[in-house]
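Supplementary notes for students who missed Thursday's class. We covered one full example, reproduced here. Read the sequence, then the structure, then the short commentary at the end.
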Amino acid sequence: AGGAAGTAVDLLFFPIDTVKTRLQSSQGFVKAGGFRGVYKGVGSVVVGSAPGAAVFFSTYDSMKQTLPMQGHLAPLNHMLSASVGEVAACLIRVPTEVIKTRMQTSSYGSTAASSLAAAKLVLQTGGIKGFYRGFGITIMREIPFTSLQFPLYEYLKYRLSLALDSRPLHATEAAVCGSIAGGVAAALTTPLDVLKTRVMLDMRDPCSHFPSLFARTREIYTKEGVHALFAGVVPRTLWISAGGAVFLGVYEWVVGSLMGMQDL
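Structure (token representation):
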């Protein structure tokens, strides 16, 4: 279910993600590619999307049912479950994200015409460690994001279910809740997403000294202004809001379908 949901979202809204990444790039939107080739790097997403989403949801659902936090502690349960799920998923997601981000911004120029070629270059220049450039900041982005998104999503589903005489929600109704929750979380965590993009696009020698996240933030603020920390906030909010509807809507639909098959 999670794999189907993740793949549907990533492929459907990939062009919006490309525009967002190029807006956040330090080289500027036009030099990073503008509106040209908005599906560059989609190959890495095809490979990593389904397993990453499947790992997240299997971890999230298992943790949610295992943690002894119910009732008024349910939001804390959802936050912890989602956070652990994201850490697990990032082990798969970050390598594909590094390749995708560099392909979207043409960081390798003509030397990498495909995601596979970009992956080979990452391996040659940075080894296995190169695939995990930005792992820390990705975790720092995802944990606040999911800590906002999933408790809000579960709360909205709960309130909507009460308003509908406590009946189970249809997939489309859950999708609306997912859209609202995703949009709010996306907008609030945009500065962390900008930092993640800048770190992944930093292609200096792996042995060189890299600035701290605080130093990067200060540099962006000083040289480019506070608006640079919110670069791409509109496409990010739009694609995650729309993507949240598809992602969580498809997930609820597939889970419902699987449960229905078990009852036969």
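Commentary. The chain is about 75% helix and 0% strand. The radius of gyration is 19 Å. If anything here is unclear, bring it to office hours.
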